[in-house]
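ok new one. same drill as before - structure tokens go in, u give me an amino acid for every spot. 502 of them this time. try not to just spam alanines like last time pls lmao
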């Protein structure tokens, strides 16, 4: 069974992201994502075009028609205004397809609102409560720049630590957290450096800055602030890492947002030594930011996917927290689920039937009364559960098998740019965009075929694709002998029997 042939039953998400190649030509990437196998479709050259909602929606429509609109569950992009407007056009043309903003982008924006609060008239309360985070991060950047921007200081630091300081691009997700995490790991090495004889003997041009760096590195109170930031943002960072993959997560995101916010509250109240019933001005600001971001990015599709996850009806899950209720008893979930059913099943007969099927499923009646069926709700992989027990509710089963296999982020589209950069690098910059796109298509999809073959797990070249397509890895002289031994084929039918279909 080929990957494309599974889309009819399992559904597929069209994932898109923008980028500029080494010659500054803007490109828009399109990936078909479903299960754990993102398939590169095309990259559109937007040079000389105005990337407004009409232009982007036309590209989306072309890709959707190529894949088959009946196979597409959702279109995932970042949260830019033109992408949102283009998504609304697509929803108008194809009512059964939802535009879904990337959850990882949403979480990253929330982190930026918290950790880099702007001092504006409309943001005074947030800035008042969060500016200490901005100041702490600024001090961390000053320490990093002071050491890394001078080879003598960097050489001195390398004698006290085997790990390196990181230069994290602002465009990277959770860049502030990544940088502070590394600083905390290097704390002992940094402190050993500034109290060493070499530091004292080194003649520094900027004595004031050197003294500032030494003071901060030896300041336990400053390190406590770093630890506090890492502790209360850890639930957000963990959710970013979980969603920043190709794995299905559409059916998990709604519950993860609730759990993440509760964990953030727990860390803040623990540090402030408050009872949970008390008010915390700092937590109120953080809570408002997280809820505002979720409200902007959540869609009825998140609610429906959550409602079709059998785990959330199990006694084990419901008993885990007194505040939990089953999805069919939740007012917001029920309202959004009804919207979805009406859009996805416009026929009155189908709508009535799927509503009846959902009632049987949520109330555990009919074929869902079986004790084994109920006991496996909490432990069985959701798609497997529906495959085993959903045959008597065919409309709901078909919908569940599609929604439970979809991602929630545009990460696969963004990671694909490393493949493009590998092929069309500064050293190989004379390729026409169309030629480069063809090479990316071949390279990326041969990798997909190879990773899904039996040989990838068993032969001498097993797990060869561990480094991705970072061009510095291939051009640094690193031994990539295993990669060179891998034999790939352009003939997809010859590979079909080796593809693992989960």
């Amino acid at each position: 069974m080929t990957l494309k042939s599974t889309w009819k039953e399992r559904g597929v998400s069209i994932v898109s992201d923008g980028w500029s190649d080494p010659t500054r030509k803007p490109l828009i990437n399109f990936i078909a994502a479903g299960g754990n196998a993102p398939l590169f479709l095309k990259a559109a050259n937007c040079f000389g075009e105005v990337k407004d909602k009409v232009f982007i929606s036309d590209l989306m429509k072309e890709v959707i028609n190529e894949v088959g609109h009946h196979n597409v569950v959702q279109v995932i992009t970042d949260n830019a205004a033109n992408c949102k407007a283009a998504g609304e056009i697509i929803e108008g043309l194809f009512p059964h397809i939802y535009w879904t903003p990337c959850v990882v982008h949403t979480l990253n924006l929330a982190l930026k609102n918290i950790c880099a609060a702007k001092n504006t008239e409309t943001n005074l309360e947030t800035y008042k409560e969060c500016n200490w985070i901005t100041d702490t991060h600024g001090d961390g950047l000053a320490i990093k720049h002071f050491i890394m921007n001078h080879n003598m200081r960097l050489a001195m630091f390398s004698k006290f630590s085997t790990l390196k300081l990181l230069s994290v691009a602002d465009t990277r997700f959770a860049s502030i957290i990544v940088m502070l995490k590394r600083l905390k790991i290097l704390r002992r090495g940094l402190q050993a450096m500034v109290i060493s004889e070499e530091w004292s003997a080194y003649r520094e041009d900027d004595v004031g800055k050197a003294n500032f760096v030494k003071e901060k590195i030896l300041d336990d109170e400053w390190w406590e602030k770093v630890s506090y930031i890492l502790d209360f943002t850890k639930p957000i960072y963990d959710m970013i890492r979980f969603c920043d993959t190709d794995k299905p997560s559409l059916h998990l995101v709604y519950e993860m947002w609730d759990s993440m916010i509760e964990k953030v509250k727990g860390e803040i109240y623990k540090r402030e030594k408050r009872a949970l019933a008390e008010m915390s001005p700092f937590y109120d600001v953080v809570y408002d930011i997280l809820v505002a971001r979720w409200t902007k990015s959540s869609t009825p599709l998140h609610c429906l996917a959550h409602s079709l996850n059998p785990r959330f009806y199990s006694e084990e899950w419901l008993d885990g927290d007194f505040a939990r209720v089953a999805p069919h008893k939740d007012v917001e979930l029920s309202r959004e689920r009804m919207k979805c059913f009406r859009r996805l099943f416009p026929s009155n007969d189908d709508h009535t039937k799927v509503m009846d099927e959902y009632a049987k499923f949520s109330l555990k009646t009919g074929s869902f009364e079986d004790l084994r069926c109920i006991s496996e709700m909490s432990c069985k992989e959701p798609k497997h559960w529906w495959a085993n027990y959903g045959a008597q509710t065919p409309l709901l089963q078909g919908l569940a098998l599609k929604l439970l296999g979809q991602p929630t982020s545009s990460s696969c589209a963004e990671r694909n740019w490393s493949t493009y950069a590998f092929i069309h690098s500064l050293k190989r910059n004379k390729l026409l965009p169309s030629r480069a796109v063809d090479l990316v298509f071949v390279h990326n999809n041969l990798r997909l075929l190879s990773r899904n073959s039996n040989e990838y797990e068993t032969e001498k070249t097993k797990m060869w694709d561990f480094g991705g397509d970072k061009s510095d890895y291939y051009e640094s002289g690193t031994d990539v002998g295993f990669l060179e031994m891998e034999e790939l084929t352009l003939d997809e039918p010859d590979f079909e029997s080796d593809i693992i279909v989960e």
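The first strand starts at residue 12 and ends at 20. and btw The CA atoms of residues 174 and 237 lie 7 Å apart.
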